[in-house]
Amino acid sequence: MNIGEVAAASGVSAKMIRYYESIALIPPVGRSAGGYRVYQAPDIDTLRFIHSARRVGFPVERIRRLLALWRDKGRASADVKSLAAAHIADLDRQIGDLQAMRRSLEHLAARCHGDDRPDCPILDGLADPVPLGRVG
Fold first, then answer.
1. How far, in Å, CA of 85 to CA of 67, rounded?
2. Which neighbouring-strand residues pair with 57?
3. What is the CATH number of the domain that holds 27?
4. What percent of the chain has pLDDT over 70?
């Protein structure tokens, strides 16, 4: 299969497939006489795995570890769960950060009259050297 076919079958763009190969997340594949990459069915499985892990937000380095565990049939599920728990903790921190950003912006927007006046509490708040995360 060529890269376009594998991209369609896996849900991973050709550009990302080449990127994953360049960072050694996936092994380099064989080449045809014309120099085109030639993929096999197991490559699609690996790319689908990566695609699923990216959809739930795993960063590349954790995906690298997950792939190693996925391939290791003698792995302990505790190792996999530990990676998932660490990712959940990271997501919780990110959610907290996003909620703080939202509260800050909501606070500034509530102070804005939204009329023809030139004064704008939103712009003033963004120009304030005090980080917005402290508001609210």
1. 16
2. none
3. 1.10.1660.10
4. 95
Give 29-54 as a DSSP string: PEE-TTS-EE--HHHHHHHHHHHHHH
**Would you say the C-alpha torsion 65, 67, 69, 71 has a positive or negative sign?**
negative
Residue 74 lies in a domain: no
Q: List the one residue out of 75, 133, 52 whose CA is nearest residue 100.
A: 133
Look up tokens 């009329």; give the residue: 115
* Model confidence pLDDT, tens digit, residues 16-66: 999 999 999 999 999 999 999 999 999 999 999 999 999 999 999 999 999
User: Can you tell me the distance from the alpha carbon of 1 to that of 30, in angstroms, rounded to the nearest whole number?
Assistant: 11
Domain with 36, as residue range(s), is 1-57
- Are 44 and 10 within 8 A, CB to CB? yes
Domain count, the chain: 1
Determine, yes or no, domain membership for 49: yes
CA distance 128 to 113: 19
- Determine, yes or no, domain membership for 100: no
